[in-house]
């Protein structure tokens, strides 16, 4: 199932929401590595990640890009209770992402 794409306004609300966990993949449309990362996350999600995974275009998220100091894409941000707990740039494998998100 494709990752749900959210706009910055929705992500800012998510950032302030009292949800246990969420993950956001920051991408750009022409980034091949981003497409691979997205597919790997879709597979990890199907394998049993029990919290929402989203994606967003970094070009349209200037506030979050600055707040979280995102330097490149793909970038996976993991939130717990609205707070950044992990920022991952290396999407090594589906197994790696699955274990990272299951922790």
CATH class: Alpha Beta
Low-confidence stretches: none
Q: List the strand order in the largest sheet.
A: 1-3-2-4-5
SS summary, helix count:
4
How many strands?
Answer: 5
CATH names the topology as: Glutaredoxin
Structural class assignment: alpha/beta
Major sheet: 5 strands, mixed
Question: How many domains make up the coordinates?
Answer: 1
> Terminal Cα separation, in Å?
22 Å
Radius of gyration equals 12 Å
**Helical residues, percent:** 25-40%
Strand residues, percent: 25-35%
Look at the structure and name the CATH superfamily: Glutaredoxin
Sketch the topology as an H/E string, one letter per element: EHEHEHEEH
| Shape type | globular
What is the residue-mean pLDDT, rounded to a whole number?
Answer: 92
The CATH architecture assignment turns out to be 3-Layer(aba) Sandwich
What's the layout of helices and strands?
Layout lengths: L3 E2 L2 H9 L4 E7 L4 H15 L6 E5 L4 H6 L7 E6 L2 E6 L5 H9 L1
Parallel strand pairs: 1-3, 2-3
Antiparallel strand pairs: 2-4, 4-5
Helix pairs in contact: 2-4
Short key terms for the protein model shown above:
Thioredoxin_domain, 5 strands, 103 residues, Glutaredoxin, 5-stranded mixed beta sheet, alpha/beta
């Amino acid at each position: 199932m494709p990752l749900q794409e959210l706009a910055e306004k929705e992500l800012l609300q998510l950032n302030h929401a009292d949800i246990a966990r969420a993950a956001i993949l920051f991408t750009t449309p022409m980034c091949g590595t981003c497409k691979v990362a997205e597919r790997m996350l879709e597979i990890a999600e199907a394998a049993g990640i029990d919290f929402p995974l989203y994606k967003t275009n970094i070009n349209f998220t200037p506030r979050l890009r600055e707040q979280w100091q995102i330097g490149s894409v793909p970038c996976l941000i993991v939130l717990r209770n609205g707070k950044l707990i992990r920022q991952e740039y290396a999407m090594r494998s589906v197994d790696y992402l699955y274990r990272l998100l299951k922790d």
